[in-house]
Amino acid sequence: MVHPSQFGLSRVDSRKQALAKIDSPLVSPGIGIRERIKGLPRVSGANAAASDTSIRKPNLPGSAARGAEKRLRKRGYSLVVPAEIFRVEDMKGPISDGELERAREWGELLAAAIPPG
C-alpha cells in the first residue's frame, strides 16, 4: 500500500530517480522546495504562500503544497492564503481544464491578501 506522504515534497533521492526515468528539465537535479524551506531564516509572521501541481489521473494522495505550508508555518511564516493544488494531465502537462482559471483566482486572492509596501 502507498502511504499518502510518499506524494508530498520530493527528496534528493526521489528527484534523482525521476530524472533517471524521464530526463526532463521539469525535474530539479539540485535542491527542491523541501531544502529551500529548510534554508529559510526563522521569522515571525513574514508572509508566504504555497501551491503545487499534481497529475490528475490517477488522483494521487498527498500534496507538496500542504507539506510546504506546514514547514513554512514551523519556521514562523504566516500563510496568507490556503495552499492550493492545480491539476495537470501528465508529467509534462497540459494543465487540466479549468485549472488555469482557478490559478488566476488563487493568484488574485494571494495578491489581495498581501499588504502593499
Topology:
Elements: H1 12-22, H2 33-38, E1 47-48, E2 51-55, H3 64-74, E3 78-79, E4 84-88, H4 99-113
Parallel strand pairs: 1-3, 2-4
What is the H-and-E element order? HHEEHEEH
Q: Measured on Cα atoms, how large is the radius of gyration?
A: 15 Å
- Name the structural class: alpha/beta
Main beta sheet:
2 strands, parallel
Task: Quickly count the helices.
Answer: 4
Q: Pick out the low-confidence regions.
A: 1-6
Number of domains: 1
Average residue pLDDT: 80
Helix content: 25-40%
**End-to-end distance, in Å?**
48 Å
Strand order of the largest sheet: 1-3
Number of β-strand runs: 4
Q: Which overall shape is indicated by the principal axes computed on the Cα atoms?
A: globular
Walkthrough of the structure:
The longest helix is centred in the last third of the chain and has 15 residues, at 99-113. The protein has 117 residues and is α/β, with parallel strands linked by helices. The strands form two sheets. The protein has a two-stranded parallel ribbon. Strands 2-4 form a two-stranded parallel ribbon. The radius of gyration is 15 Å and the shape is globular. The protein has one domain (4-113). It is built from four helices and four strands.
Short précis:
The chain has one domain. The protein is 37% helix and 12% strand.
Identify the notable features of this structure and list them briefly.
about 120 residues; alpha/beta; two-stranded parallel sheet; two-stranded parallel ribbon; globular
